[in-house]
Amino acid sequence: MIIIRKACAQDASVLQTIYRRCVIEAGWRQPTAGVSEDFADVTKGETIWIAVDAQDQALAVLAVQEGDAYIHHLYVDPQAQGQGLGRALLQHLQSRLAFPWRLKCVAQNHDALKFYARMGWHEIEQGLGEDGLYYLLEHAGPLLPTISIE
């Protein structure tokens, strides 16, 4: 069973681990990119939701800038990918954040781009960032019907 809840101070270490595995060590990441290695630093002021298992172990994280309806981070631990956790986090968010939503995705992050395309996101802009070309994506909502993860 998967539960979606707000992150708390006790989650800091595991959220840092997920961030390291998904961003700092990512194969798509530019080796010279100036990305902060501290998850707490890059998510200051954001609302953070996590997907946890029955033992309350965080498996995925979503950080959002609510005022802008901007999803700043969405990461699923590599060992937990393919279980619908990213979809579950986004579906949870849709009852808490008005559409349209936006996010940036690095062009070299092919798996993430495929995921967002399956979820109905559309490219509205391109730009250059620390990791090279990125796409600004938008979702006008609503998402696909909610699925239950057991």
Automatic annotation (TrEMBL):
Entry keyword annotation includes S-adenosyl-L-methionine: no
Keyword Acyltransferase among record annotations: yes
Residues covered by the N-acetyltransferase domain: 2-150
InterPro entries assigned: Acyl_CoA_acyltransferase, Bact_Acetyltransf, GNAT_dom
UniProtKB keywords: Acyltransferase, Transferase
Pfam assignment, any one: Acetyltransf_10
PROSITE patterns documented for this protein: GNAT
PANTHER family reported for this sequence: AMINOALKYLPHOSPHONATE N-ACETYLTRANSFERASE-RELATED, AMINOALKYLPHOSPHONATE N-ACETYLTRANSFERASE-RELATED-RELATED
Name the record gives this protein: GNAT family N-acetyltransferase
Originating species: Undibacterium umbellatum
